[in-house]
């Protein structure tokens, strides 16, 4: 098991998804058959991370606790950190400083979905990278909407440009960040941007200037989905539904990951299946035990 700790940033108001997020956190909306937060949680689990903090708003904290509990059902240890106001992604490292206690971290945005054969191996490679930070580049058709990797002539990382008018490459930086234990200290030196936020790009540039930022490119076999709009939320649900029905396998299933890694046993998996009764999710868990 890695000593790296996990952070899921699940704060914000979700105004782009109004009116459906007026009464519920965006990260608890359904993506096909599971709450959205199950998918980023599963990414951290695939990275071998078992101690995870969920950063959320004071008003949504209880909803997350009802949904996720303390994580023991998956062999995890979950804790919750309140974010009074969304002041930029780098703020997460300030809020989580006590939780991290000097440990390296993997932070994933609560509205991001990752899928692909070989993902656990790529995450393990990032975990082994050593001092510094690792981000993941994903080829997109509209890089001007994202932070974009600027490569030098030898293929090394020259910079990360936030929402450029002329993108230096088609590779966007995804919402998954592996950073070493110095991230909170570095985050304290980040000054608010013109829009008043502590930008993750500014934090990453600190690593880059010291030659400590690595970029792993996700190839054609990967999917990276951002569920921040009504259309992309629907697309993500349809994507998961198609994979699940065509392959007969779950996407983003914490129970399956925990059981396959030995973090929970057959009895715990069976107890989880009983909670879901005879619906498709419960039937899938029973099928893992050969009890379908």
Describe this structure in words.
The protein has 292 residues and is an alpha/beta fold. It has eleven helices and 13 strands. The chain has helices at 38-46, 61-68, 91-95, 97-100, 119-127, 183-188, 200-209, 230-247, 254-260, 266-275, 280-288, and strands spanning 5-9, 30-31, 34-35, 51-56, 77-82, 105-109, 112-116, 133-139, 147-151, 157-162, 171-179, 213-218, 222-226. The strands form four sheets. Strands 5-4-1-6-11-8-12 form a seven-stranded mixed β-sheet. It has a two-stranded antiparallel ribbon with strand order 2-3. A two-stranded antiparallel ribbon has the order 7-13. Helix 10 (266-275) runs antiparallel to helix 11 (280-288). The radius of gyration is 19 Å and the shape is globular. The model has no long low-confidence stretch (mean pLDDT 93). Its EC number is 2.7.7.24. GO terms for molecular function: glucose-1-phosphate thymidylyltransferase activity; metal ion binding.
- Text of the CATH class of the largest domain: Alpha Beta
CATH-defined topology of the largest domain? Spore Coat Polysaccharide Biosynthesis Protein SpsA, Chain A
Looking at the structure, what is the overall shape?
globular
List the total number of helices: 11
* Secondary-structure element series: EEEHEHEHHEEHEEEEHHEEHHHH
In total, how many beta strands? 13
InterPro entries: G1P_thy_trans_s, NTP_transferase_dom, Nucleotide-diphossugar_trans
Cofactor: Mg(2+)
Organism: Salinihabitans flavidus
Protein name: Glucose-1-phosphate thymidylyltransferase
């Amino acid at each position: 098991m890695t000593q790296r700790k996990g952070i899921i940033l699940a704060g914000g108001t979700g105004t782009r998804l109004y009116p459906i997020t007026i009464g519920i956190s965006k990260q608890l909306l359904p993506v096909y058959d599971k709450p959205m937060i199950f998918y980023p949680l599963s990414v951290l689990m695939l990275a071998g991370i078992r101690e995870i903090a969920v950063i959320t708003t004071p008003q949504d904290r209880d909803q997350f606790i009802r949904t996720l509990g303390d994580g023991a059902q998956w062999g995890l240890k979950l804790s919750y950190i309140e974010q009074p106001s969304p002041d930029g992604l780098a703020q997460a490292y300030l809020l989580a400083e006590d939780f991290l206690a000097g440990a390296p971290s993997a932070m994933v945005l609560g509205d991001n979905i990752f899928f692909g054969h070989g993902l656990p191996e790529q995450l393990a490679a990032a975990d082994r990278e050593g001092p510094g930070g690792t981000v993941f580049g994903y080829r997109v058709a509209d890089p001007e909407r994202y932070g974009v990797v600027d490569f030098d002539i030898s293929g090394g990382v020259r910079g990360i440009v936030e929402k450029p008018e002329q993108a230096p490459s088609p590779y966007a930086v995804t919402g998954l960040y592996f950073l070493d234990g110095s991230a909170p200290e570095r985050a304290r030196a980040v000054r608010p941007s013109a829009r008043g936020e502590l930008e993750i790009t500014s934090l990453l540039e600190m690593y880059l200037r010291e030659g400590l930022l690595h970029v792993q490119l996700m190839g054609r076999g990967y999917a990276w989905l951002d569920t921040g709009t009504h259309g992309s939320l629907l697309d993500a649900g349809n994507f998961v539904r198609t994979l699940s029905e065509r392959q007969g396998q779950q996407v983003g299933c914490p129970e399956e990951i925990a059981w396959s890694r030995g973090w929970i046993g057959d009895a715990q998996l069976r107890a989880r299946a009983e909670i879901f009764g005879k619906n498709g999710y419960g039937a899938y868990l029973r099928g893992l035990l050969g009890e379908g």
